[in-house]
Amino acid sequence: MRARLDHLVVSALQQGAAVPAFTCYDFTTALAVVAAAEEAGCGAILLVAPKTAATPNGLRLITALRGLADSAAVPIAVQLDHASDLRVIADAVAAGADSVLADGSSLPYEDNIALVREARAVLAAQGHADVVIEAELGGLAGDEDRAFGADAAGPLTDGAGAATGTGAASAGLTDSGQVEDFVARTGAQLLAVAVGNVHGKYKGEPQLRWDVLQDIAVRTHIPLVLHGASGIPAEELVKAAAMNVGKVNFNTELRTGVLATLESETASHRADGENLQGLLGKWNAAAKDFAAGALSTLTK
How far apart, in Å, do the first and last CA atoms of the chain sit? Predict the structure, then answer.
């Protein structure tokens, strides 16, 4: 069933839980995620990467995901992830996305605010003032679409340049002192934060700054979002909801599992009369198993 992203997340937080969000580059993975959510009786979020949404077929995928979400037995939201191109944002919403991460985190602070406000204005002008806007403050290392991005090395730094963990030299922790001003001026309904989390694979053990997250949580009433959850141990993720993190994004582990399954199963299914249907079943099962595990972790 259709669900507003902010309502879905707030409802989960009220129950001491968070909602998992899964990047879906294809419909097979999305079917698996929704099936896992329905079996768990929990809501979920289907994410679409901006590179996907920038193509005609990507917009068709968003429309298909909208239909899938609307027919699901549990609340499902469809979100455009990490978008900074206003045209892509407008097109994705027109295709069926009900929420957007207007991501200006790589920009100077004032420009980040300006991007989020402009995205809101563009959508309102097109009759989509009800679209939920997530914004991001602080820089995450890595690449959302590739496990080993060009920037996935070097120390994370805080505002003073002090090393804080593993990530890209260009990444930095969210400055908690900016949070209240940023939320007030952007009108964002969710805030993605950088607390040592990275996109892609972690080098070594993730070193999340729970102290920074706690400081951010007491400075804003809106739900927080943790990106780069792949690789963070379950025993760490379960702490998130207690610090007002209501949305947790997964990508790398999901697609790694799918690709590993395809690699191991393709030869046997080719030998079995080019059995694509059977191979798709294995793909679906791999994605569903991962989604089920994430749902279980975040709703404990």
Answer: 23
Q: How far apart are alpha carbons 248 and 234 in whole angstroms?
A: 12
How far is the C-alpha of 116 from the C-alpha of 165, rounded, in Å? Answer: 28
The owner of tokens 């204005």 is: 121
How many Å apart are CA 267 and CA 148, to the nearest integer?
26
Separation of alpha carbons 151 and 163, rounded Å = 16
Q: Taking the model in full, what pTM does it have? A: 0.89
| Number of domains forming the structure of the chain | 1
Q: What percent of the chain has pLDDT over 70?
A: 86
Measure the CA–CA gap between 218 and 212, rounded to whole angstroms. Answer: 10
Residue 81: active-site member? yes
Determine which one of 6, 70, 81, 211 is catalytic: 81
User: What is residue 126's DSSP assignment?
Assistant: T
Do the Cβ atoms of 32 and 65 come closer than 8 Å?
no
Asked if residue 21 lies in contact with residue 248, where contact means CB atoms within 8 angstroms, the answer is yes
Rounded CA-CA distance 124/126 in Å is 5
Average pLDDT, the chain: 89
Domain span holding position 206: 5-298
pLDDT tens string 192-250 = 999 877 655 556 666 788 999 999 999 999 999 998 777 788 888 888 899 999 999 99
Token representation of residue 31: 């079917």
Return the number of other C-beta atoms located less than 10 Å from residue 228's C-beta: 28
CATH of the domain at 271: 3.20.20.70
Question: 84: helix, coil or strand?
Answer: coil
Q: Cα separation of 295 and 297, whole Å?
A: 6
